[in-house]
Specification:
With about 450 residues, this protein is mainly α. It has two domains: about 210 residues, Up-down Bundle (Growth Hormone, Chain: A); about 200 residues, Growth Hormone, Chain: A, CATH 1.20.1250. The longest helix has about 55 residues. The two termini are about 25 Å apart. The N terminus is likely disordered.
Length: about 450
Amino acid sequence: MTRDNQTHRNATRPTSRTTAATEPGPGNVNFPTSATPPDNTAARSPLISRDFILLVAGQGISLFGNMMLRFAMSMWVLDETGSAAVFASILAVSIVPTIILSPFGGVLADRMNRRTIMVALDAASAALVLASAIVFAVVGFNIAAIAVMQVALAVLGAFETPTVQAALPQMFRAHGPATMRRAMAVINQVQQLSSLLPSFLGGVLYAMVGIRVMMAVTITSFAMAAVLECFIRLAAPDRTADGDRLPTPIEDLKAGLRFLTYDRPAVFHLALYAAAINFVTIGYSAVGFPYTIRTVLGFDATVYGISDGLVGVAGVAGAFLAGLFAARLAVRHLPAATAMFALTTLPQGIVFLLPLDPATQLAVLVAGMCASVIAACFTNLIAVPAIQLSTPESMTGKVMAMFSALCMCAQPFGQMLYGWAYDRFPVAAVLLVSAAALAIGSLAVIPIAKRLES
């Protein structure tokens, strides 16, 4: 879950207060909100409001630019150094400030107008990439400058992610869980498309126009996103409950931890559960999937690229499919969604126990991974809004920042463990253990879902 993973905010008017009040689930918690007061005369869906359209457009354009830059930089570093590990190491290092600073980004998101923060961060990202482009034009390729740029972008992302995650419930809390999930489904769809397009366009554009034009595309994308976000109507968070004295950032973080551990432990348990699922998922998809295709099955980079592209398309399809059911999804469906996740992993392991040819094993592996990605879209669409809607307005930024930090911490550990496991055990064993872990998770989350549902 990373600026990549990330983004939500929206509308202003519910179509019916009665519907929002009678919806089951954590959305019924009566926390104060700083969103525009509901207007009972509004007949149109909040999902087609100006604010939501601006939000979706801004986030989609910003993410597209960010992914284009990452793709272009990876190609440039590979061309200049001949090593794919160099840029991967830079990205790995850049996750450290994201994890450390993300909670403070949540504190800021609960203090300032979230629209203002988003505009400032996208504008700063555009200025940073522009400054880097000037440096590259003067000195040429410089790996240190690339590292500084990527780490700085990660720092900005650490502040933007919790801001966006807090803005969506601020805009839609009054509309109830169903509308909230529909809004998040739209955001997920745009994010998937914005992440997938650079994979198809990046190689062609880089070969045709080179790194400078690709950086110009990124600068333009960040700048356009900042301009669009200027017109989103979003009030400052309501801090009246804190009295005249504004708590220090450390006090704010302590208040967020107290809320998770004492006031709403079920929310904390759900966040831990999501991090555990992330640990398993990232490990076997980011490490095991390419390793199995290239090393175990012996296919070349072209076959892997096509397979990875199919998984990306499945992610887009999953986001749209989950969006169709968004209004009907509730936290009580989380165990079933995780169980489906486990079932999609099972055939991937079984096929490597059978005496089949590599092409058949590849087909089952890719089909299973596509199904897993679709199941993950449903799991994500249930879990994240449950946390957002179970959190009071004044703490949404902090809580979502801690949630993101937990999930990000799980990623490198999952990658290291799965890298160790794939080096020592058969592919079938690793995948079947992963399926078993997901199945156990589907049982473990049942009491958590029941507490949040009630």
